[in-house]
Specification:
The protein is built from nine helices and 19 strands. Strands 2-1-19-18-15-3-13-14-17-16 form a ten-stranded mixed sheet. Strands 8-9-10-7-6-5-11 form a seven-stranded antiparallel sheet. It is α/β, with parallel strands linked by helices. The protein has two domains: 5-67 and 187-405, QueA-like (3-Layer(aba) Sandwich); 70-170, no CATH class. The model has no long low-confidence stretch (mean pLDDT 94). It has helices spanning 96-101, 161-168, 185-188, 211-219, 258-266, 276-294, 319-332, 368-377, 380-390, and strands at 34-39, 42-47, 60-64, 66-68, 72-76, 82-92, 105-113, 123-129, 132-140, 148-155, 169-170, 196-199, 223-229, 252-257, 271-274, 304-305, 337-342, 357-361, 401-405. Helices cover 22% and strands 27% of the residues. β8 (123-129) and β9 form a beta hairpin. The chain is globular.
């Protein structure tokens, strides 16, 4: 049967989420959060520290090791108006690593808060790094749209932008927490394995893992792979309108090294994605391998999966063949890692190619994340969410989690 996004109505993916069920803070011990286990259509519950008991030897767990940056920068105009500049992604230099290493200036795509109060001029903020006084400047370099391109520059110039933003900015917790960021969020709103700077929203399924749990997974001879997808600010935004066809997905950048891709190949058919961001990256990798088979002249800068593209590409290529295509592409182009961009949207009707199971939190009504869950476990998503609500599970970023194995 032909897939038609016009058949997907958003009111079919609404449930009542009382405000008191949204966890505003995490538990003191990450791995003491509750775990809902959905396996072969049956539901049980446990504590997250026991998650190794529900996994099998041979499973390959895939983690997203992105690190959330202090993306919210506050500037005060001479008039007293407070302007927030929310960094979304680098424009120049174009790569995350290059931008964070910049020692003079850089340009980012940014959302502007209170933008009516900042039509022109240069914003300034003073800060101190290693006893050196720094003046950070922000100025518009494009149009009147929001987001806008903002040039950051600073003096003295021999300090990397990564240090600047770490000191000058605030970690961007989700707006649905209805509170300001606190000092504790610098630790709470990161996974213990966060490594690569770039996200403005966290891969929250990873919050529950502690070094103790990771060690127990290793002792059970479960394989683990790290990849990176820098999570965008729109990830947790509820879909507007009545039909999913009208929703425009955001772009996100992802990376995976050659040796990790080889490990992924060995673990096919046994992959457990840790979080929806890992799942989206894995599925995007599959479709890149498909595109490479269909477009022989594809270049490294062309590794992009558009929103609805997977629903029209060749669906008869096995995951193993797709990964082989990626590895051959890397050899041909002398690449040590794949760098791609994805706008993939995973909704009911999508057939997963790469994952066997998924660890994930409980998501907002009408969100693309909830649609992904519905695509993975079908109409049982309602049974899972009703169970979680009836058994006092905590919801959203700082809430409890689930292990889904259809």
């Amino acid at each position: 049967m032909r897939f038609n996004p016009e058949d997907i109505k958003l009111y079919d993916y609404i449930y009542d989420l009382p405000a008191e069920r949204i966890a505003k803070y995490p538990l003191p011990e990450r791995d003491r959060s509750r775990l809902l286990v959905y396996k072969n259509g049956k539901i049980s519950n446990s504590i997250f520290k026991d998650v190794p008991l529900f996994l099998s030897e041979g499973n390959t767990l895939v983690f997203n090791d992105t690190k959330v940056i202090h993306a919210r920068l506050h500037f005060r105009k001479t008039t007293g108006a407070l302007i927030e500049v929310f960094c979304l992604e680098p424009i120049y230099p174009p790569g995350y690593e290059q931008s964070f290493q910049s020692e003079k200036s850089c340009i980012w795509k940014c959302l502007i808060g209170n933008r009516k109060k900042w039509k022109k001029g240069v914003l300034k903020q003073q800060l101190s790094i290693n006893n050196s006084k720094i003046v950070l400047k922000a100025e518009k370099v494009s149009g009147t749209e929001n987001p806008e391109y903002i040039r950051f520059s600073w003096e003295p110039q021999n300090i990397a932008f990564s240090e600047i933003i770490e000191k000058a900015g605030i970690i961007p917790i989700p707006p649905y927490l209805n509170r300001e960021s606190e000092t504790g969020d610098d630790i709470w709103y990161q996974t213990v394995y966060a490594k690569n700077n770039g996200s403005v929203a966290a891969p929250t399924a990873g919050f529950h893992f502690t070094n103790t749990v990771l060690k127990e997974l290793q002792n059970k001879k479960l394989n683990s792979i790290k990849l990176t997808l820098h999570v965008g600010a729109s990830t947790f935004v509820p879909v507007q309108g009545s039909y999913i066809k009208d929703h425009k997905m955001h772009t996100e950048h992802f990376f995976i090294k050659k040796e990790q891709l080889k490990e992924l190949y060995k673990g096919l058919n046994q992959i457990i994605a840790i979080g929806t961001t890992s799942a989206r990256t894995l599925e995007s990798l599959y479709w890149l391998g498909v595109k490479i088979s269909e477009q022989e002249n594809l270049l490294p800068n062309d590794l992009f999966i558009d929103q609805w593209e997977p629903y029209s590409l060749n669906k008869n290529i096995a995951p193993a063949d797709s990964i082989k295509n990626l590895l051959r592409f890397m050899e041909k182009n002398n690449l040590e890692r794949i760098e791609g961009i994805t706008r993939i949207i995973i909704v009911p009707g999508y057939q997963f190619r790469m994952i066997r199971g998924l660890v994930t939190n409980f998501h907002q009504p009408r969100s693309t994340l909830l649609l992904l869950i519905a695509a993975f476990i079908g109409n049982d998503w309602r049974k899972v969410y009703e169970y979680a609500l009836n058994h006092n599970f905590r919801f959203l970023s700082y809430g409890d989690s689930s292990l889904l194995i259809p």
